[in-house]
Amino acid sequence: AEVLINNNHWLELRNLVEEVLVFDPQSHNLQWLFVRAQYQLGEFEYARNAIEPLLIQANYKMKAQALLAEIEAALRKPQSIPLSRQGEHFIVQASINESFNLSLMLDTGASISLISESTFEALSQNLNVVYIKDLTLNTAGGAVTASIYQVAEFAIQGYLVNDFVFAVSPSYLNEGNDGLLGMNFLKVFDFHIDQNNSLLILKNK
């Protein structure tokens, strides 16, 4: 852990600690390393949740409170999230339940986020997904029937929405991305798309 910290390899540290925590989930030292890694990776919402048990531990209380203050300050600041271009559109990286990564096209005209059938098949094989209902969506190509599902957590660079719902439609076929990021995520935050610099600016309301 010290080698990884000294070399600023925070992603590798988080992954390492996550594996070791399975064998010793009550270790306060491991929990502290995990929270530090989440903070350095910009996963502020996750870090705020993960740090809570350390706030009442005598050996960690002071430094946990100091880090929590930094986390809270970071959550109040707008974050610039890099976007990649796909033609005239922008693609953002997202994650579901901290373990399933996907690339989504920003679509401020979509009321609900959507993922492709192939991506959903991979998702449902690895994570718990709850079916909600079928729904008719109005798209540029006309009305389509989609199935609505829910997952426990959906996040973009630490900006987290719990009990996130999305649509799955067989009619969505778009190479180069896994679906659309709609307003049911974006409206939770103050957001701005900086087209000149290919950035998504998010700030907690």
Give the percentage of residues in beta strands. 35-45%
What is the CA-CA span between the terminal residues?
35 Å
Number of helices: 7
Category from helices, strands and their pairing? alpha+beta
Task: Output the helix-strand order.
Answer: HHHHHEEEEEHEEEEHEE
Quick overview of this protein structure:
The chain is globular. It has seven helices and eleven strands.
What does this structure look like?
The chain has 205 residues and is an alpha+beta fold. 33% of the residues lie in helices and 36% in strands. It has helices at residues 2-6, 10-21, 28-40, 44-50, 61-76, 117-126, 183-186, and strands at residues 79-82, 84-86, 89-96, 100-106, 114-115, 130-139, 142-156, 159-168, 179-181, 189-194, 199-204. A six-stranded mixed barrel has the order 3-4-9-5-8-7. A three-stranded antiparallel β-sheet has the order 1-11-10. A hairpin with a 4-residue loop joins strand 10 and strand 11 (199-204).
Protein traits:
11 strands, 6-stranded mixed barrel, 205 residues
Question: What are the SSEs and their pairings?
Answer:
Elements: H1 2-6, H2 10-21, H3 28-40, H4 44-50, H5 61-76, E1 79-82, E2 84-86, E3 89-96, E4 100-106, E5 114-115, H6 117-126, E6 130-139, E7 142-156, E8 159-168, E9 179-181, H7 183-186, E10 189-194, E11 199-204
Parallel strand pairs: 4-9, 5-8
Antiparallel strand pairs: 1-11, 2-3, 3-4, 3-7, 5-9, 6-7, 7-8, 10-11
